TrEMBL record:
HAMAP family: Salvage_MtnB (MF_01677). Residues 8-195 form the Class II aldolase/adducin N-terminal domain. It catalyses: 5-(methylsulfanyl)-D-ribulose 1-phosphate = 5-methylsulfanyl-2,3-dioxopentyl phosphate + H2O. Its EC number is 4.2.1.109. Catalyzes the dehydration of methylthioribulose-1-phosphate (MTRu-1-P) into 2,3-diketo-5-methylthiopentyl-1-phosphate (DK-MTP-1-P). Pathway: Amino-acid biosynthesis; L-methionine biosynthesis via salvage pathway; L-methionine from S-methyl-5-thio-alpha-D-ribose 1-phosphate: step 2/6. It is an enzyme of class 4 (lyase). InterPro entries: Aldolase_II/adducin_N, Aldolase_II/adducin_N_sf, MethylthioRu-1-P_deHdtase_MtnB. One of its GO terms (molecular function) is methylthioribulose 1-phosphate dehydratase activity. PANTHER family: METHYLTHIORIBULOSE-1-PHOSPHATE DEHYDRATASE (PTHR10640:SF7). This is Methylthioribulose-1-phosphate dehydratase. It comes from Pseudoalteromonas rubra. Binds 1 zinc ion per subunit. Zn(2+) binds at residues 93, 95.
Amino acid sequence: MQSAQAKHALIDAGRWLSEQGWVPATGGNFSIKTEQGFVVTASGHDKGALQPEHFLEFNIEGTHTGGTGKPSAETELHLALYALSARTHCILHTHSVAATVLSRLTTEHSLNIQGYEMQKALHGFTSHLETLAIPVFDNDQDIPALARRVAEYHAHTPVRHGVLIRGHGLYAMGADISETRRHIEALEFLFNCELTRRQLEKNA
Ligand SMILES: CSCCC(=O)C(=O)COP(=O)(O)O
Ligand SMILES: [Zn+2]
């Protein structure tokens, strides 16, 4: 994909994510692979109102190759997630209420979801009976350290559709932007189902 096309696809995704309420304030950051490397959002902007000048370009080794301004504070995490699988071509990071709350309720290293037909919207799933295990990492202001923990985890348990950062949000991955958008939409649906189910069970 050419970088101009990549930026427009991410601008469109940002508008949609904002309409869903999943990138409040200046939360979230997005990237997509291009012929030269990848483009990533600049830091501190409203991700629902991005313009082509709100992106920076990097090669896949992480060297800045174009664009001005400050790259997303979480650029190194995008780079680390791309390094996990050559299949990943787009990463969208969101701050929804459901992902933020559920990640805090999950004290384990993985949020396990099972029994929902919607799981089949995720690449590789064919049945509600399979268990979807989304890795959960403690939040860290040291992004390189967080990126190292994600890579270490992946070495024993492959990260497939995304990761949750506790009290922070979701990083969703996919083979292209439409798959990543579908993964976010399905995961958000599943997070909301789980939150509702847990609340109802607690009150029963
Ligand atoms: C108020 S959002 C705090 C930073 C963050 O988590 C985020 O997703 C946005 O950071 P960026 O530097 O990419 O704008
Ligand atoms: Zn964030």
